[in-house]
Amino acid sequence: MLHSLAPDRANLHANFVTGAAPVLSVESGDKLSLVVPDVGWGVEPPTSLTAPRRKVEPRDPIGHPARDAGPCMMGPIAVRGARPGDALEISIDTVTPAPWGWTYAGEGLATPAWNAAVGLGNAPLTLLRWSIQTSAAGGRAVSHLGHAVATRPFPGILGTAPTPPPREPYASGWTPRTCGGNMDCRELVAGSTLWLPVMVDDAMLSAGDGHAAQGDGEVSGTAIETMLTELRLTLTLHRAMPLACPRVLTAPDELGKRRWLTLGFGPTLDEAAAMAMSGMLDLMESQLGGLPRAECLALASSRVSLRVTQLVNPAKGVHAILDA
Q1: Euclidean distance between CA atoms 133 and 155, whole angstroms
Q2: Can you point out the beta strands (E) in 86-190?
Q3: pLDDT score recorded for residue 64
Q4: What is the rounded CA–CA span in Å between residue 52 and residue 50?
Q5: Alpha-carbon dihedral of residues 112, 118, 124, 128, nearest 10 degrees?
Q6: C-alpha to C-alpha distance for 252 and 247, rounded to whole angstroms
Q7: For residue 220, what are the CA distances in angstroms to 118, 155, 258, 314?
Q8: Residue-range domains of the chain with CATH
Q9: From CA 108, how far away is CA 115, in angstroms rounded?
Q10: pTM of the complete model beyond 0.90
């Protein structure tokens, strides 16, 4: 069954609020077609550093100030019968960006230490406005300053709800976790499949943060941010499939090859890399006929690559890559 959700105010949130009611309940095997505003709740692009832009309003309703203070996400969407210890398979079928996008860099973003480390210092905020064209042959984004890049659209946020944090009413939507969220993994394009651990009853999936293009790292703090005019997903529940971290089977490349990814997150890149590599060893043990873990690690040293997923979120990200 196909379910459609528009970016109406009632269907949007920014943080994972303990006990929040789902905006939609679906069965395993159902499909979703979502229209998602950009990460800043926008349904129009910024035209300058100071001009107002149209956003989804109102936000921060009385009694729920934490629900909307953060990145715009569609959901939460309940998958009936999902329980902690299960896994949710998310097939990414279609990712269609709006015909516009934007990228910021400089002062005012949540990356001052990184800006200083790369020599940007207190450089004033800079905005690139992008015009995005899509076609059967591939997409292209052209900035108002004449820069041109190939598009590779994907959702920066896909996550099931985390276990409620102790003594806190919500979990931040900015932070990627074991159960996904703001991962900013550029491999989550159409044709790829993501597996997420289920941490709470009914999984409570959220999606958002459309990107028309991004390099590994998302080094300015923003990608080519855009509204997604359609994000189509297929959801499949797997019983009793505990996962230590998200897994991705990438879309086929031009030679038809696919790769396995495992993603890790932590306060440092070292900790993120350890989580990603531990998850990859779990995957190798299950996929390679039960090889001992030490043998998998020895094999991984010549077959597995580590890449920086992003380094601008509250938890840094690393993904491990293995040819399928």
Answers
A1: 18
A2: 87-97, 100-105, 126-133, 140-143, 148-150, 154-160, 170-171, 180-182
A3: 67
A4: 6
A5: -110
A6: 16
A7: 10, 17, 29, 14
A8: 2-243 (2.60.120.580)
A9: 10
A10: yes
